Amino acid sequence: MSEQDKAHNAAMKKVQIRHREKMKKKTKPDRGLLLVNTGDGKGKSTAALGTIVRALGWGHRVGIVQFIKGTWKTGEKQFFARFPDLVDLEVMGQGFTWDTQDRAKDIVAAEKAWRRSVEMMSSGDYDLVVLDELNIVLRYDYLREDEVVEGLLARSEKTSVIVTGRDAPGKLLAAADQVTEMMNIRHPFQAGFKAARGIDF
Amino acid sequence: MSEQDKAHNAAMKKVQIRHREKMKKKTKPDRGLLLVNTGDGKGKSTAALGTIVRALGWGHRVGIVQFIKGTWKTGEKQFFARFPDLVDLEVMGQGFTWDTQDRAKDIVAAEKAWRRSVEMMSSGDYDLVVLDELNIVLRYDYLREDEVVEGLLARSEKTSVIVTGRDAPGKLLAAADQVTEMMNIRHPFQAGFKAARGIDF
Q1: Which of B41, B45, B101 faces A181 most closely, judged by CB atoms?
Q2: A26–B194: do the CB atoms touch at under 8 Å?
Q3: How many other CB atoms are found less than 10 A from the CB of residue B21?
Q4: Mean pLDDT for all residues in chain A
Q5: What is the pTM of this model?
Q6: Between these two residues, B104 and B191, which has the higher pLDDT value?
Q7: A&B contacts, CB < 8 Å
Q8: How open is the CA angle A136-B52-B188, to the nearest 5 degrees?
Q9: Does any domain span residue A197?
């Protein structure tokens, strides 16, 4: 064995020991978690979709409320439709806000979507609830931040929630168990490319 | 209509016009893209999993090479197994590096996984190839960065590739069409929680 290999193996042994000691102090979550995917980069809703696949792999029940039209396209909807007993998808968005140009109508849609979200989160029927693009709705003040955070914290103990969308507000960040910021370092759009089938939708 | 609603609707109208003008200048990608999910936060592999779901929704063929054991657990594997004609999964990792403590053995496994990756990327048989945790292998110098970037750029024109793992090296970042950094802002692990079933695996 080379000196480099020996040094590496010894270092890895130490990492392993530290890792095991750290894990001894950790406990499994005894309640559902509140997770936030925010930032200006790709992957916020896509990572939520990946988590939905994981949850379904365990036979968990999943509720999805889509606050803005457009995230879940035909491909994903066909996928969800394969699990009629496990997935409830509510599409409340009426198109992107720059398409509707009707603030009053957007607010009515947002409030309806929020009521359905609260029902799902408080019912105890779901292991995972995904509130897709809820942050956008908060950013436009279509819903009150305080009311939303209260509703999230009052959810059933068994239910994990994922909130997606850029510009997650401060009180939501403070209430979350996990916050990940997806940062755009480089995006094909900047090089003149439109969204790609099978990648972006 | 209130003054606030009128102002909002007028602003949204402007956003819409700007958006449409911008989109006119964009073209659909005429080749597969190279996407990198890096950073210390959650969602790198999970977003890749979400993109796999999208690709499968379009009937695309997907190749997956797992460089480090542990990312794709039972739930995901059962999911991939539902698409035997569309998904090829190669698990090359021999456990996390701090479990094997055997650098020489890790390098052999990494080289084997890389050869399979090159086969998949150059064959023209796949719309999407996911090289999961390839960045970790590069970080430990198990593979040569130059060779990996060359292999990625020599892929079939039709094939998009997603590379995941923290600490993506500079030459890979420079070669990529899209780079997203998943930043850990808060993680349940810091609050004393272990990974949760249906969320993290």
Answers
A1: B41
A2: yes
A3: 9
A4: 88
A5: 0.85
A6: B104
A7: 252
A8: 55
A9: no
